[in-house]
Amino acid sequence: MLPTLNAILNATSGIFLFAGYRFIRRKRIKQHKFCMLAAVTTSILFFISYLYYHYHAGSKPFTGQGPIRTIYFIILISHTILAVINVPFVIITLTRALKEKFDQHARIARWTFPLWMYVSITGVIVYLMLYHF
Question: Is the pTM of this model over 0.85?
Fold first, then answer.
């Protein structure tokens, strides 16, 4: 059950990120802020649930064979590395926005947004490959 919840939280975070991006492009600041705070919240909930699950259940090995196995590990490794790299980017981006340093916020958000979107999307892909292939 928790892996499915984790995938839902990852997907939800991605949806909020995309909506927040669209809102800021239209200068709808309040909606952007709501979506981005919701993306951070769902990401934090994902991380708590992920840690809880893996602490209690351990890891599930990928059983696919052939080229799909290589594809799975490429996606998993890139997802994991970029998720770790993106955490400080998210913290800095959020901090700059909350301190109303919007020019600095926008500069780093140009990097944070695509990294975070990639991590959200590949998190769902890893889940699908691990539990539904």
Answer: yes
